[in-house]
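Progress against Task 2.4 (sequence-to-structure conversion) is shown through the following example record, which the project officer requested during the mid-term review.
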Amino acid sequence: MIVYESTKVEFLADVFTDNLVKYISTNFAEKIGKVNEREVRAWDNSMQYMYRVLSDQEIPNNAGVAIEFKVPYTSKRIDFLISGRDDQSDSVVVVELKQWDSIEKVSGKEAIVKTFMNKGLIETPHPSYQAWSYAALIEDYNENVQNDNIQLRPCAYLHNYMLASKDEPLIDPIYSHYVGLAPIFAKGDAPKLRDFIKKYIKYGDDKENLYRIENGRIRPSKSLQDSLGSMLKGNQEFTMIDDQKVVYETALDLARQSYRSGEKKVLVVEGGPGTGKSVLAINLFVQLTQYGHAVQYVTRNAAPRNIYATKLKGDMRKTRIDNLFKGSGSFVEAMENEFDTLIVDEAHRLNEKSGLFSNLGENQVKEIIRGSRFSIFFIDERQRVTLKDIGSIELIQQFAEELGADLVKTQLASQFRCDGSDGYMAWLDDVLQIRETANDDYMGVDYDVRIFSDPHEMRRQIEQLNERQNKSRIVAGYCWDWTKDNRNNPEYSDIDIPEHDFGMSWNLDNTATWAIDERSVTEAGCIHTCQGLEFDYVGVIIGKDLIYSDGQVVTDYTSRAQTDQSLKGLSKLMKEDPERAKKLADEIIRNTYRTLMTRGQKGCFIFCTDKALENYMRERIERAAEMKKRLG
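Structure tokens generated for the chain above:
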């Protein structure tokens, strides 16, 4: 998606007549969402500088110009593109524009600087790294760029920034690798940037390369489970961008500090679904293992651990695998600082007690912090889906203080799932009435969301999509019993929807790897088999625990299955504190569907057992589709 595109001569005319910012603002509001004043000022300022740079007869008038191009599978956008050809190939110059006027060097963290942003001094990727990483993602995922050999030439232009005569932090030797990949241009460097553009844009292309990039087929994104083996061998499978890169470098720096000094440290990484928490956790796990640190990857949910173990079979021994991936109850008897680093994914799923009967230990959060010099907690409090889930930022902070650990809090905001659509995530929260957002009619332009009146048709669609790469699955709310006698019987329909003559088995008890098994598309997964994992497409069956009544989305905990352990203990709590019990049950049900409906990278299909909820969701989807249609 491109917010604004034109030829060079049209761009110059739009700037000269003061129409450019108006066009960008209008298109941005229609295609992406509300425009804030800071962005308008940035466009107005930066485009005046690009006007001067491009005002050169040797830059072809019919070269293409694009502003605000969306990077595949992310919520990020490239500021400025210029397209054309050089003597050998088609070329696109990628320009990362910055309003910065000062920076500070950050030692010990690769490609990180400090600058004033949003009224505070913050750490952020070096502009050269940012420009390079955006171009790298386009090269990774855009088939036209690969097949047509379109050369991307990234650079960064800090038009307000004056380079110092000596000891300049922006071009310090610690950044030389990425400055070499994406040159830096500062205040007064307009002639140099112009020469850089002219080197690669010798001939115009009438926006042809922009068209090919915007309309190029996006290759399937890499899945963590498929890339794990390669990552453990030291191969880089994922390019980290923006806040991911900052958190990654922060974690490595804290790990090194703790390893050298022996001081106990805790890092909290907060982020919603699809912000790359698990990818970041595994990247850190791999890097710290290569450093020689004693490190383990920890999850409460067994499903990801089972998938990873299966994917690694043949590459390493089972004992080695079991020593790398641990359940959250494994540290009851761990000695003080037994591990250098414990990386806790899905930390919101941590329990108070451990063991089969939940009678061991004191508190899993405390045991993890006590058992390691450095602990990292990846957390999304809106993904707590059982009454036993006690993982919270407040609790982590409490035990960090109690055990004398330094606590650092960070946040991931960039969206990497749901086609990188922040809009869909906000829209979903609004639809499920988890929180009010500005996205009541907008979910992003590419994510595929459909409502089905017939569960058979939804299943057919998911099965067809699954034939491509075995990466589509059906999941359901836990409103149907998973009976012991039939847990290994694929012919038994646990999920029974008689009004549609529809039946489906829960995932079979004879496998721990439902998410990747070839035939498991015929079985329905639940929250416990899919949380922490992702698919291309997910079909969600919403049970009677979520209905629509009197203009409200309403939860009904009494419609949950008797075999569901998520609400175990609710009856007792209902007698002791009914108001709190109802609030917790309501949160768990909404969080469960929010989590299920964010497992798909490309699309989410929905069937509702409650007809009123179907009509409500259909109306919300149709409103969003109308918005998409209007935006073209």
